[in-house]
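Give me structure tokens for this 392-residue protein.
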Amino acid sequence: MSEDDAPRSLDEAIPGQRLTTAQGTVYRVRRDYPVGHHYGGWPLEQARGVPGSTLAALARDDGLSSLTLDQVCFLDTETTGLAGGTGTYVFLVGVGSFSGDFFRVDQFFMEDFDQEPALIATLAEFLEGFRGVVSFNGKAFDLPLLETRFILSRRRSPLGGRPHLDLLASARRLWGARLESCRLVALEEAILGETRVGDIPGYLVPEFYFRYLRTKDPEIVRPIFEHNRQDVLSLLALAGRAAHRYEAFLEDPPRESGVPSLDLFGLARLYSALGRHEPSVRCYLACLDAGPPDHIEARAGLECVRSLRRLGRTPEAIRLCEKLADGPPHRLWALVELAKDLEHRVRDYARALSVVDRALGLLDTGGAIPPDLSSALLWRRGRLAGKLAASG
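Here you go.
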């Protein structure tokens, strides 16, 4: 091999700095992005002001309620395998964080297996300063794997017990009903409007790293650095977009319009799970107005009725049931819920009885009614007839 054909050094191909620790050296690459830099259609700084209450709601973790994204790290790892376990090494850790007027991405790279002690020592010191972490599937993969490497190095994990926003779970709640996949690359395209060009598929990352270990050709791992850096940027952009969507319907009128019906359904369910029934109702009603698929319409309508009841807005629940009962193919559940409200809340037994008879009438029109529901309707009818007789 001629001198011109020889592989460039890592420093030349991927400019960075070797950090010296008592355990050896580790290679760090740093890239600063001005907070006005656009990714996913919005400037990076837009996510900076997300309140802790929103982070806590998205994560279902109250530990984030006192934090902002200025105080957390955005973490993504590249590993020698996707199965996890003690035989899987973390060879590249990307950490994003706000620093002054920049969003900084630090990447810590293990040039060979004997550098793991130095990598762990560097991460132990660097990550200690963050009060929380944002990841994508980090609760199931990145954090447990890192913790294993820290344990094997006889060190305490600096992120252990820290509040954690795992954006995979948030994405599934907000967009999972509409999207076929909630992989990060799919979310980048569908939610952020970003399409990766020339990106290395995640499943090839271990193979590329092992090839680098054999050849020491840094051009082999250059795509891995780019892949990891873009993952970290996506974490920030996706966190900002998820927060914007969550906050959109907290106020009336909502801050956002034209939201797909299935996204509205997912957001309504998140609000409901958090006990935020007012915005939940707004989302469910907007979902119904947007014309969702039949199976979603039934679920959205039923959940909206239940949320209205929790808010004590029985007349609105009744009007919604009446409206939805008039349109097939999901009349039956609306008639049942309408009968419940008329009997137990309005105490209009005669009207409730007519609604039950209307529901039972579906038996004669070929409607598919489960036997247990048919029995329940007949039992309800007998009870209502008894109440009417008792009331004279």
